[in-house]
User: Which sequence fits this backbone?
């Protein structure tokens, strides 16, 4: 199914500076102050390409910067096709974790073909930005992050064998995550092993849909059938890896006229058992215990108080949400959106997509502070399970936007993919 190939990666040369000064997190989680700090540390940081801010036409300027760096040897393409085995090692709640995957070129296919499988809806503004950047630079600076099943561990074994050698990069990035990179030869067997795999997008839906649009654009302009624009750079990670971590993304409701928190809680009692929690720490612990028990619950901060909302057993979700696919009815985020945001608060899907009354944050304290500063209320979710992501995607369904947050994010700039 999947066509996975090695490629001649575009990489920074030693003359550009230490690699830890040249990479950055994904563009969509970088603040303006962080962007300036990266450039202050090293003017060759990839942020100039991934999140351009210079000139009247920022995309055109990014293309000019890339061309200049190519001419001066700041970056250069490899001489041979390689697979890039990539590892991130990090700490979560006092436990050291890591996962390995492979960065490769993957042939673009429409979602309808069932090879690359999405699980989440996307926002149009982000795709327009990425398309303009791709047209101006002809390059993938960051990877689409995908999961695949590797029950026999044949692909994982290749990762582990490769990692026995000395990495070409081994450093701690600005976020404290250890980054390692090795190369594997073209004939290592990965292309053949991936032929029967489906690839589930974990992070990078916007980048993948943008790559599809760019492929269509290039075909219309005479690109050859085997052109590099027929592929996109991906990081492929085994779904069975015990290093995978998914964080929740919380919801902040704002700018609703005539919001009445007391009435909302009263109405919600039709579907939920509601209990008041005295502190945010106790709420976090309660949510965690509900998650581990497999229960459907989420937290709320309304009128200055914390609450836990646990779904009642009757009526059933099949009765309450008959038009939703069964895989979606099993998600906390879908139940929150359908029963609370849509049914009780009148925030429909179009409103959510345009973020008219809805904001997202991964930080519970940030959500609470937004409410204290004038937002209506906040809802706190447990993380979506990896098996749920695969089930939703495999059923051809899509979760609401921002349903998952894989941690840590993949670093940008270790290896890039020149497609034109």
Assistant:
């Amino acid at each position: 199914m999947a066509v996975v190939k090695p490629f001649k990666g575009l990489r920074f040369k030693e003359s550009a500076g230490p690699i830890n000064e040249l990479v950055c997190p994904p563009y969509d989680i970088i603040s303006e102050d962080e962007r300036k700090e990266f450039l202050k540390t090293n003017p060759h940081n990839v942020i100039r390409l991934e999140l351009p801010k210079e000139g009247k036409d920022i995309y055109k300027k990014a293309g000019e910067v890339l061309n200049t760096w190519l001419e001066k040897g700041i970056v250069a393409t490899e001489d041979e096709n390689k697979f890039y085995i990539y590892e991130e090692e990090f700490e979560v709640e006092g436990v050291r974790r890591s996962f390995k995957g492979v960065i490769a070129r993957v042939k673009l296919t429409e979602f309808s073909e069932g090879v690359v499988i999405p699980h989440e809806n996307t926002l149009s503004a982000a795709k327009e930005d990425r398309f303009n950047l791709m047209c101006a630079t002809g390059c993938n600076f960051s990877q689409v992050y995908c999961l695949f099943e590797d029950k026999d561990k044949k692909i994982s074994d290749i990762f582990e064998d490769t990692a026995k050698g000395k990495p070409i990069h081994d450093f701690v990035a600005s976020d404290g995550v250890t980054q390692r990179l090795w190369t594997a030869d073209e004939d290592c067997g990965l292309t053949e092993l991936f032929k029967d795999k489906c690839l589930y997008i974990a992070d990078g839906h916007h980048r993948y849909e943008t790559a599809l649009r760019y492929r269509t654009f290039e075909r219309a302009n005479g690109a050859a059938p085997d052109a590099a624009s027929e592929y996109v750079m991906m990081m492929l990670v085994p779904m069975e890896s015990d290093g995978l971590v998914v964080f929740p993304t919380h919801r902040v409701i704002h700018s609703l006229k005539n919001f009445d928190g007391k009435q909302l809680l009263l109405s919600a009692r039709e579907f939920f058992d509601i209990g008041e929690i005295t502190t945010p720490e106790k709420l976090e612990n309660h949510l965690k215990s509900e998650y581990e028990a497999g229960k459907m619950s989420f937290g709320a901060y309304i009128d200055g108080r914390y609450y836990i909302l646990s779904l009642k057993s009757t009526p059933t979700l099949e009765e309450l949400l008959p038009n939703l696919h069964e895989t979606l009815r099993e998600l906390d985020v879908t139940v929150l959106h359908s029963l609370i945001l849509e049914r009780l608060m009148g925030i429909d899907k179009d409103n959510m997509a345009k973020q008219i009354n809805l904001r997202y944050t991964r930080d519970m304290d940030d959500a609470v502070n937004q409410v204290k500063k004038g937002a209506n209320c906040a809802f706190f979710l447990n993380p979506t399970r990896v098996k749920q992501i695969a089930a939703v995607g495999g059923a051809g369904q899509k979760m609401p936007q921002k349903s998952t947050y894989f941690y840590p994010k993949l670093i940008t700039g270790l290896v890039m993919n020149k497609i034109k």
The chain has 15 helices and 21 strands. Residues 205-220 form the longest helix (16 residues).
